[in-house]
Amino acid sequence: LQNDHKALMKQVEEALHQLHAREKEKQARDEAEALAEAMSQNQSLPQPFAKVNAVTPGSPASVSGLQVDDEIVEFGSVNANNFQTLQNVATVVQHSEGRPLSVTVIRGGRRVHVGLTPKRWAGKGLLGCNIIPLQR
C-alpha cells in the first residue's frame, strides 16, 4: 500500500511540474504577442496635422483634458487628409459652439480621445488653447 501511495504521489508531482511548465511557456508567449501588438500599434499611429502649444487654465480646452504638446490627429471632421490651414479647424469650432467635438490626439506615443465642447468663457476664443500646424 505504501509503494502504491509513493508511486501515485510521484505521478501527481510530475504532472504538476508539467502543468506549471506549460503555463510558464503560455505566459511568455502571451507577453511576446502583447509586446509585438503594442509595437505594431505604434507603427500604425495616424499622421498628426497640428500641435497644441498652449492651454489656458480654466478654459474649455483645459477642462476637456487637452494638454500642451498634444499632437492633433482628428479635430471633429478635420484630419490629416483634408487639413489645409488652421481656418479648417476654426470653421469646425465655430459651427460646433455648445456641442461636443471629438478630438483625437497623440500623447506620449498613444492615441487619446478627448471630448471638447467649444463655448464662450471668461477668456479669449471658444477653446482657450493655441494650435499650430505641423510642418510635413
TrEMBL record:
<dbReference type="GO" id="GO:0005634">
    <property type="term" value="C:nucleus"/>
</dbReference>
<dbReference type="InterPro" id="IPR036034">
    <property type="entry name" value="PDZ_sf"/>
</dbReference>
<keyword id="KW-0143">Chaperone</keyword>
<feature type="coiled-coil region">
    <location>
        <begin position="5"/>
        <end position="42"/>
    </location>
</feature>
<keyword id="KW-0175">Coiled coil</keyword>
<protein>
    <recommendedName>
        <fullName>26S proteasome non-ATPase regulatory subunit 9</fullName>
    </recommendedName>
</protein>
<feature type="domain" description="PDZ">
    <location>
        <begin position="17"/>
        <end position="109"/>
    </location>
</feature>
<comment type="function">
    <text>Acts as a chaperone during the assembly of the 26S proteasome, specifically of the base subcomplex of the PA700/19S regulatory complex (RC). During the base subcomplex assembly is part of an intermediate PSMD9:PSMC6:PSMC3 module, also known as modulator trimer complex; PSMD9 is released during the further base assembly process.</text>
</comment>
<dbReference type="InterPro" id="IPR035269">
    <property type="entry name" value="PSMD9"/>
</dbReference>
<dbReference type="InterPro" id="IPR041489">
    <property type="entry name" value="PDZ_6"/>
</dbReference>
<dbReference type="GO" id="GO:0070682">
    <property type="term" value="P:proteasome regulatory particle assembly"/>
</dbReference>
<comment type="similarity">
    <text>Belongs to the proteasome subunit p27 family.</text>
</comment>
<comment type="subunit">
    <text>Interacts with PSMC3. Part of a transient complex (modulator) containing PSMD9, PSMC6 and PSMC3 formed during the assembly of the 26S proteasome.</text>
</comment>
<dbReference type="InterPro" id="IPR001478">
    <property type="entry name" value="PDZ"/>
</dbReference>
<keyword id="KW-0647">Proteasome</keyword>
<dbReference type="GO" id="GO:0005737">
    <property type="term" value="C:cytoplasm"/>
</dbReference>
<dbReference type="Pfam" id="PF17820">
    <property type="entry name" value="PDZ_6"/>
</dbReference>
<dbReference type="GO" id="GO:0000502">
    <property type="term" value="C:proteasome complex"/>
</dbReference>
